[in-house]
Amino acid sequence: MEERDVRRLLSTALGTEPPSPFDTAGVVTRGRRTRSRRRLAASSGAVLAVVAVTLPLVVGLQPSATTVAGGRESAPAMRSAGPTVSPSPSRTAVPSPGGAVVPSTTTTPSDMPTGRVVLTAGCATADPSAAADDEHGLPANQPKLMDLYDRVEPVVKRRFPQVYAGGRLANPRDRIELFRKPSGAFDEYVLREFARDCVAVFDARYSAKEVKARADQIMADRPYWAARGITVAQVSFDNTGQVLPVGVKGDVARARAEFPDRYRTGVPIEVSEAAEIKFR
Amino acid sequence: MHGDDEQQFTNWVDARASALRRTAFLICGDWHAADDAAQATLTKLYLAWPRLTRRDDIDGYAWRVLTRSLTDEWRRPWRRREHPVELVPDRAADDHTGQVDQQRLVLDALAGLPGRQRAALVLRFWQDLSVEETAAALGCSPGAVKSHTFRGLQALRVRLGDGFLIEQKGA
Asked: Coiled-coil annotation: which residues (chain B) (predicted)?
């Protein structure tokens, strides 16, 4: 079979081409929208990380700055994003009104989750030095990790909705990190399908579905809390599947006391005073 | 992206989007999936454009992203998925029956090839990429590309038979 024969075969396989759905302006618009969304996700995560790091310093490292409701006390280190290594997966809450899983791009060397971790074979060649800034001040491995995240996240989210909690880019470790409720099938799938990439899988307490259900419940209860002088101003999303961060205004002390009573079981709620969000 | 960059990008899309789409179809065998893959590729290309123009590696990046976005699909039996349609396709004979049958035969023969062999054949012979460029797009060595190409051609010959080619040449 000669080269031109193959070309003729492929031409036959192409057959009659349906009209193209692309228009150049639409492609540019979609590109702009995607870029804005990614920048927003990155900047929101960065702001929250800065707040998480500086807030304990400002308030004199008082662990009572936040309260965990729901009958399950989380480990103190989980609420701290300070420079020490947490004994349990640390997390970055990314505001997401729709409850969608948004990758955080703000992991730092000190943000290393601990506990049981499942690593794909590709992690043997992960290169932390690839996180050095490029000429734009972004980690050089950002495009590679975003590409990997785009390949992995939609698939695991679709295949394992009952256990998948969220994911994020971990530039300093040159990998992406996924959080799921313990699941052998999930681990087996990731190890098999993404063996050539570096993907780390950590335990989560709740799936994204469960966290979303809790968030929906809080949103539905807003009139109830408003009648008690508490304004639910922010419902964030924890992509490590540990808690649901809720920001309130008004009688914050009362909120901290009453939220645990109302939401005794299921995903715990981390109540904090809602910070004012300023847009530039 | 600056105005000049955006203009360059739109010029590139105008010139190359159809080629991306056709190549994606030949690799995956489904126009809807091909449109999705081409669309995803163009969006990623837009995001990476300033970096790529400095490196003068636009086409190479586009083929890499396109083939990778089809990677998941390669793990499924190709064209074995059901595509719901509103109406049952009318297969009554018309002037193009022979052409459609031939297309079906070739598509089925391609469908029987492993994904990498299919992609290697399409990139090498449809897009005229060199062995090295194909290797970069597939993320493998030039030797592997040669092997995929050789095996893919052999398999096509077995599946279609020489008679098909003679018939095509005569058509």
From this structure: none
